[in-house]
UniProtKB/TrEMBL annotation:
Pfam family of the protein (one): DUF4142
Keywords: Signal
Gene3D superfamilies attached to this UniProt entry: 1.20.1260.10
Residues of the signal peptide: 1-26
Keyword GTP-binding set for record: no
Protein name: DUF4142 domain-containing protein
Domain spans labelled DUF4142: 47-175
Length: 180
């Protein structure tokens, strides 16, 4: 019995010593430095909002035309490229909409009336006439958006929008090269 009492006393004394040692270790230590503030995204400027609307319009229109190319094109390479363009620009448009919504900018969900007329006219074309018109429309749209992309990339402070513009520029240049 005496031996059991000694063992319990020794164990209890060891445990108390460990607790006191641990509490003494943290007693004089300085507090850890505060965490850095989360980096805030650059605000959306009027130029950013205008560019977002322009790129959204291009995405909507070119996605509709590329979808038509999958079934109306006479050239099989244009049909395959149309599927790729439709997929890529749909993803781009979703990312743009998410980014714009985070900055309280609402984007349209349908092409403008003028672009819808182009889409409607292109729906009636098939084969080589569709191919010529599609390449011409894509080249025209690419030429129109190119200065906006370059300007946005060089002047915007919003890193996410710059990345989106850079990706769009790279893809559009690639598509244009493949069409010709």
């Amino acid at each position: 019995m005496l031996r059991s009492f000694r063992q319990r006393s020794f164990t209890l004394a060891s445990l108390m010593g460990a607790v006191l040692t641990l509490s003494a270790c943290s007693a004089g230590q300085p507090l850890p430095p505060p965490l850095p503030e989360l980096e805030k995204a650059a605000p959306y400027t009027l130029a950013d909002a205008t560019f977002s609307q322009t790129l959204n319009e291009l995405d909507l229109t070119q996605t509709a035309l590329a979808t038509l190319a999958t079934s109306h094109a006479g050239r099989s390479d244009l049909a395959v490229l149309g599927a790729t363009i439709a997929k890529d620009l749909t993803e781009n448009q979703k990312a743009l909409a998410k980014l714009a919504a985070a900055h309280s900018v609402t984007l349209t969900t349908a092409p403008s009336a003028a672009n819808q007329k182009i889409i409607d006219r292109m729906q009636r074309l098939r084969g080589a006439s569709f191919d010529r018109s599609y390449v011409r429309q894509f080249t025209l749209a690419h030429t129109h958006i190119k200065p906006s992309l370059e300007s946005q990339i060089s002047t915007s402070k919003n890193k996410d929008l710059v990345k989106l513009a850079t990706d769009a520029q790279t893809k559009l240049n690639s598509y244009d090269a493949q069409m010709h």
